[in-house]
Each structure stands twice: as C-alpha cells, then as structure tokens.
TrEMBL record:
The keyword Transmembrane helix applies. The keyword Transmembrane helix applies. This is YibE/F family protein. The chain crosses the membrane at residues 26-47, 185-203, 210-229, 235-253, 265-283, 303-324, 365-387, 407-429.
C-alpha cells in the first residue's frame, strides 16, 4: 500500500523533544517488555515437538521406477486432437437443419466451443536440457486451451520412454513424454531481484532492514506456525504468538528502536487482539470448516492432528498483519509530529487532529483489503457468478464465505486499530510532558520552545513594525 511512513527527512528534534522521546521509550518498554516476554514463553511452550516429521506426502514429482521428470526448452508447437484425429472434428457436424434448431444451437454454442477447445492439444518439439535428440511432449487440454505454449518456453515433463521402450504417441499408444509444469525459475528470480533492488534504492537502509524483517517473518512461519499446526497445537495462541513475534521483528527491523515504533507496536498488538477475537468467533459462528478445497481434503487424509478450522483461524489472523502494521506506524508518526509542533495542545485536541488523518487512511485502506482479496479469488468469483445463484446465497456460500469473512475481519481490526493506536500515542506523548522540560534547550521562562516559535516571532515583529510606521505618519 502506498502510504509513506518515513519521518527522517524533517529537521532534527530539539533537545526537549529528544528527551521526551527517551522518556516515552521507558514508558513503552515497561509495557512491551512483558508482552515480548509472554510471547517468548508462549513460543517455547507451543514450539513444535517434531511429530510432523513422520508425516510425509507423496511428492507430485515422485516417479515410478524407470520414469523420470526431465526439463527442456520448447522448439516448436503443433496443434492437434488429443485423441490423435483432426483438431476440428468436434465442429464438423453442423447439419442443414439450422433453421429448426437455431435456438438449441445458440444455447449450446458456448459449451460446444469449450468442448472443442478442450479436445485440442499441443504437441511441443522439445530439446532436453540433459542433451540428446529432441522429443515430442504432449500438453494436456487445459494448458492447450490457454494458448500459452510458445517456442523458447522452459518446461518440465514426464519421461515414460524407458518404460514404453522408447515408444512415441502413435495410434492408440500412450504418449512417451507428457507435460507437467513450466520452469519459472528465471522470471521469478528476476522479479525477486527487481523487488529487492527497488525497495533498497527508494527506501535505502530502511528498505534493507525491512527485507531482513520479512526474512525473520518467513522463518517464524516456516519453523514455528506451520509445524505447530501440523502437530495439532491450539490455533489461537499459536497464531497470536507467531503474529506478535513477526510484528516485533518487522517493525523494529524496518523502523528502528524508537518511541514512535514502540507506540505503533503497542497499537498493532491491540488491533491484533481485536482481530484474533473476531476471527475466533467467526470461525465457529460462520462454520468456516475449510473442507471445500482439495488441499484441505489432502491434509485431513494425511493426519488426524491437523485442524482445518484452526488453519482457517490462523489464516484470518496472519492475513491482517500487513494492513495493521501500515496504519499503526502512520498514526503513531502523525501523533508525534503534531505533538512536537505544538506541545501545548490538549490531549483531546491532539487525538481529534490525528484521527482526521486516520479517517483518510481508513477510507483508502479498507477498499485496498477488499480489492486484494477479490483479486486473489477471481477464478472462484467467476465460477460462482456462472452458477446464477441469488447474490446473498453467493456471498455466504462455501466458496466465498471464507474470503468475505477474512475481508470483514481484517477491515474491522484495521479500523479499530487506528483509534486504539492514536489513543496510545496521545497518552504516551502527553505522559512525557514536553513543557516541563522546555528549559533543556535554554529557555527558562516556563514556556515551551516550539519549532515554529522563531517564525511566529518574525511575523509578530513585522506586524509591530508596520503599526509603528503608521503611528509616525
């Protein structure tokens, strides 16, 4: 999301502002250190015991003796029927009675076209990466229908030639080389390098630290959350401890150890608790069992310790972390900037001013979440649309209910996190009492030296000068 959080470009803080930040850091440390300690203890108690190591799934790339998965580059592509006949055989039966069957043909035209596309397969002349003569690789109808196979593509294919004694697809024989997947290493690596380069180029050292925090988040997910779910650990405390650990790493890595960051972390933890509570209730109330997908069925058949509803619950919580982090760090920075510009502002007015910024953030971020989830679920949305079901039934169907609940819970947690973070930030900055320590920058008149005092003094001087000139005239 395109919301900037940087506050390094402004002037350096005054002495009393720096002292206030230090005092705020001590106040926040008294709250966050117990939270961090509790998170660490929870992770130790819930750390996976290794039971999942005995659970193994057959790799989709495991092959029988004599069969291998090879890679190669497509040299050329030819189109033909999957059954070996002409590609257009499915369209050759249009009789002369079109006038009496026009309505029937129009209603079935889409289905006929779809069947025709699925009856057409690509056969690619492929040069194996291991060397040797080129081979004929057959693509399945679904990939062929996408028309995305081109010369130069890297593919992974099943090599059955040794089992079939070098047979190729002729007559009724099975094909000797069958497409499995595309080789995507190069484009994905290019995007990853480009992403890291752009982040570091624009955000510089902070961007590099943010990438390090992302790496820590991956480690928490890979070595704690996922194995814990496989071991059957309770989902709610598992998700809370993992999410809190991720937030601590991401926020401090990206934004450094400061009162602003600690304020944002505290507000994010509050928002996380709200989101977790809503997710825990919604998972049971909306019966989000997560059993409608092939992946869920695979997990259920693999182990009886894996709770699919627990997996759904963890997904609802983890999905909200990015948006929560975004809005809380922005709100914390807004409160600090407003306060340091005018330390004499009352807590109520400071909260109101910061919430005006927060409302704009809410308006932009809420539909950002909705669009992100809608984009990820577009295939499901299209399928459900074609069912021609009532709109309410569609939204509450098994296919969409999880996405709808995830969007609603994430949005509620995000909206509530903004006032919570703003309130925490206001309480912290007011507790530092900047005015009491105004003499630290050389002012002993009991009034705070605000960053814009010099400008105000210059304006007042200009006004007094004009009045003096008028009197003399």
């Amino acid at each position: 999301m395109g919301h900037g959080h940087s506050h390094d470009g402004g002037p350096p803080p005054t002495l009393q502002a720096a002292a206030a930040r230090r005092r705020a850091g001590w106040i926040l440390a008294a709250i966050l250190l117990p939270v961090t300690l509790l998170t660490a203890v929870g992770m130790i108690l819930l750390w996976p015991g290794g039971q999942h190591q005995d659970l193994k799934l057959s790799s989709p790339y495991a092959a029988a003796p004599g069969v291998s998965f090879d890679t190669g580059k497509v040299l050329s592509v030819t189109r033909g029927s999957c059954s070996g006949g002409p590609a257009d055989s499915s369209q050759s039966s249009q009789g002369s009675g079109a006038s009496q069957g026009s309505d029937s043909q129009s209603s079935q035209s889409s289905a006929t076209q779809g069947a025709a596309r699925l009856s057409t397969c690509f056969t690619a002349v492929t040069q194996p990466d291991a060397g040797g003569p080129s081979v004929q690789v057959l693509f399945n109808p679904e990939v062929s229908a996408s028309d995305s196979v081109h010369a130069g593509d890297g593919i992974r294919y099943l090599n059955l030639s040794r089992v079939q004694q070098g047979a190729v697809q002729q007559g009724g024989q099975a094909p000797a080389y069958v497409f499995v997947d595309f080789v995507r290493t190069f484009p994905v690596a290019v995007l990853a390098v480009l992403y890291a380069a752009v982040v570091i180029l624009v955000a510089r050292w902070r961007g590099f630290r943010a990438l390090l925090g992302l790496g820590v988040a991956y480690l928490v997910l890979a070595f704690y959350l996922l194995p814990g779910l496989v071991d059957g650990k309770p989902a709610l405390p598992l998700a809370l401890t993992a999410s809190t650990a991720i937030l601590i790493a991401v926020l401090y890595f990206a934004h450094g150890f400061s009162a602003r960051t600690s304020t944002a972390l505290l507000g994010t933890v509050f928002g996380l608790l709200v989101t977790a509570g809503l997710a825990f209730w919604a998972t049971d109330a909306a019966k989000l069992l997560g059993i409608g997908s092939h992946e869920a069925s695979t997990l259920i058949n693999t182990s009886g310790t894996i709770s699919i509803s627990g997996v759904v619950l963890c997904g609802l919580i983890v999905a909200s972390l990015g948006a929560l982090n975004d809005v809380t760090i922005t709100q914390a920075s807004a409160v600090w900037e407003l306060y340091e510009l005018s330390p004499g502002t009352s807590a109520g007015r400071l909260f109101t001013s910061a919430m005006r910024i927060g409302r704009d953030h809410i308006a932009s971020t809420v539909y950002t979440i909705a669009f992100a989830y809608a984009g990820a679920a577009l295939p499901v949305l299209i399928i459900v649309m074609l069912y021609e079901r009532p709109f309410l039934d569609t939204l509450t169907s098994a296919e969409l209910a999880e996405e709808v609940v995830r969007t609603l819970i994430g949005s509620i947690g995000l909206v509530l996190a903004i006032p919570l973070t703003t309130l925490v930030a206001v309480l912290v900055v007011k507790a530092t009492d900047l005015r009491r320590h105004a003499t630290e920058d050389g002012h002993d008149d009991g009034e705070p030296h605000r960053p814009h005092d010099d400008a105000l003094a210059a304006i007042e001087g200009a006004v007094l000068t004009r009045r003096e000139l008028r009197r003399r005239r």
